[in-house]
Amino acid sequence: MTESEGARIGHDTPVSSTASRLFDLRTVLAVLFAVYGLVLLILGLATTTDADIAKAGGFNINLDTGIAMLVVAVLFGLWVRVRPTRAPGATGDGAGPTGH
Amino acid sequence: MMLAQAQTDLRLDANAIDYLLVAFYFVLVLGIGFAARRSVSSSLDFLLSGRSMPAWVTGLAFISANLGALELIGMVANGAQYGIPTVHYYWIGAIPAMVFLALVMMPFYYGSKARSVPEFLYKRFNRTTQRVQAVIFAFASILIAGVNLFSLGLLLEALLGWPLPLAIPVAALIVLAYTTLGGLSAAIYNEVLQFFVILALLIPLTIAGLNRVGGWSGLKQAVTDGPGGAEQLSSWPGTSLTEIANPVLSVVGLVFGLGFVLSFGYWTTNFAEVQRALSAKSMSAAKRTPLIGAFPKALIPLVVVIPGMVAAVLVPQLSALKNGQPSDVTYNNALSLLMKEVLPNGILGVAIAGLLAAFMAGMAANISSFNTVFTYDIWQDWVRPGRSDRYYLQVGRWVTVIGCVLAIGTAFIASGSSNLMDYIQSLFSFFNAPLFAIFILGLFWRRMTGTSAWIGLLSGTAAAVVVNILVSTGVLALSSQAGSFVGASAAFVVGIIVAVIVSQVTKPKTETELVGLVWSLTPKADRQHTSDGEDSGWYRRPGVLGGGVLALTVVLYVIFS
């Protein structure tokens, strides 16, 4: 995906090889939070002890944080889907991080 | 519960899953370094990301570069020690300066196409000023990188039980690995990642901590009954922070010392920050960079200062310390002690990754800006001019290595300070306050000369050093915190006075040379940004964003007054 993005990116600016050819950072963030969220969700469901709950002041912190992270992962994923990086001139609302 | 007289076990009880979560984070960080490496083909790519970054990326990197170990460990420590008044570092001490940088100064920085702050000084003043500032900045960056390195060393010591002399070099190697690979792009992309991981540490920690002390009202009760008293619940007048007994003078000290001199000095001239905005892809994106960073900056104290206050209530060793009883911990331990106290395994791994991220964010920012200044301002413009770009790219990579090695040395200097925040504030008073003085004068006063700039700069630094010596030897009866406020103010005032006097007897640049560098000589059109295409929309207007974040800060101050 990196190369094809680079090819689509515009010709109006001096083609710097940098950000235009980098991977989409939003995808990396989605992956990070999906993995963290999933691990915490499983831990929260499977291994939480009363001591863990007491430690966090009465709630299952792994479970709740895991769910929150999965939501964040989905949001980043949606952002990538709804506003993929695109060629210059296209209208965007700030969502296209690597487009011009 | 542990007894205070027993040796405090600072080691976090991390298990295999925690380490796996940390390891996964490192895979992503190094992966970004490798991916970014392929895109580096010139020194501008390596040192300034080819000026191609979108605003949300540079904006979050802007704040992440500031959200280093200093921010986390130091501000949680301040939260534990001083309570709510710590918010001044975030609000009066950052937001107005960030808005000023975006709306007033960015047109000159970005518009001048300078590649660094010292290069801007060359354009406005002369070579000597550029060189003096480049050397001072390189020196300061390495000292501050040492603070970040020391903090990571503390963390590895706490986490793995490694001694500091082993932990500090190992920590330096980690950062070295990814900053030499991908240069500024890798640093900036990782900073955005770090921003989110740091939040994933702070938010659960705050919620769990508050739950443990009976919510916000429980915390307020405990702090009121504690050694700090109710004073620690209100931001103004902040007499404990400034140690100025008179409330009116304390407010003046906060607004002028912290809010104006220290904060404007840091945010508007610190190249580690400004560099993020210079890598943006348009003038509009460059202006929005500090503003996008300002929104998280305004909200972060909620998840930094509050955990600090919780730690002081919840962790017995810290409560003992606050009560003036003997204790074998310092406020710098507050963050890791609270993590140990409230976070079970799993989320603990995320939190450790967040702490490592904070360390790397800070150090990578120092190292990547050190790189740029050394390569462009010291090497290319001074020591070895006229070589190929390829040559300077190689220099940039080697300077990264040298910077990391030097930071190991300065990490041991930082280890001598009991409160990291005090140490860092005194460094800023030496280096940033005088720079801001000549910057602001040069921006608005066309008569100011090049000679006056570097003489003013050095005089200001000397003034701050003198104040620091007077404070540390006890001649001036001030805490080191208040000492750095006074030092910064002295540096600013001396810098301005000396620059004005020297300007009278030296020759200024001609007006045509100063177009685009001095406010009154720059046509309004040159300061404008485009507002079409990806820069369109009312919510992307820098003025709207700036007004919005100032309003948010006022609301926050009203809530925590």
Report on the architecture of this protein:
The complex is a heterodimer of chains A (100) and B (561). Chain A has a domain at 23-87. In chain A, helix 3 (25-46) runs antiparallel to helix 5 (61-82). Chain A has helices at residues 2-8, 18-21, 25-46, 50-55, 61-82. Residues 1-22 and 87-100 of chain A have low confidence and may be disordered. Helices cover 61% and strands 0% of the residues of chain A. With 100 residues, chain A is an all-alpha fold. Chain B is mostly helical and 561 residues long. Chain B has helices at 16-37, 43-48, 55-66, 69-82, 95-111, 117-124, 127-160, 164-212, 215-225, 239-242, 247-269, 271-278, 283-299, 305-314, 316-322, 334-342, 347-383, 389-414, 420-444, 450-472, 480-505, 524-527, 542-559. In chain B, helix 3 (55-66) runs antiparallel to helix 12 (271-278) and helix 20 packs antiparallel against helix 21. Classes of the chains: A mainly alpha (100), B mainly alpha (561). Chains A and B meet through helix 2, helix 3, helix 4 and helix 5 of A and helix 1, helix 3 and helix 8 of B.
Q: Which stretches of chain A are low in confidence, meaning pLDDT under 50 for 5 or more residues running? A: 1-22, 87-100
Largest sheet of chain A: none
**What structural class do you assign from the helix and strand content of chain A?**
mainly alpha
CATH fourth-tier homologous superfamily of chain B: Sodium/glucose cotransporter
Count of distinct structural domains of chain B: 1
Number of strands of chain A: 0
CATH topology of chain B: Sodium/glucose cotransporter
CATH first level of chain B: which class? Mainly Alpha
Mean pLDDT of chain B: 84
- β-strand percent of chain A reads under 5%
Distance from first to last alpha carbon of chain B: 35 Å
Poorly predicted residue ranges of chain B: 1-5
Number of strands of chain B: 0
Terminal residue distance of chain A: 17 Å
The secondary-structure class of chain B comes to mainly alpha
Order of helices and strands of chain A: HHHHH
Order of SSEs of chain B: HHHHHHHHHHHHHHHHHHHHHHH
What's the tally of helices of chain B?
23
Mean pLDDT of chain A: 70
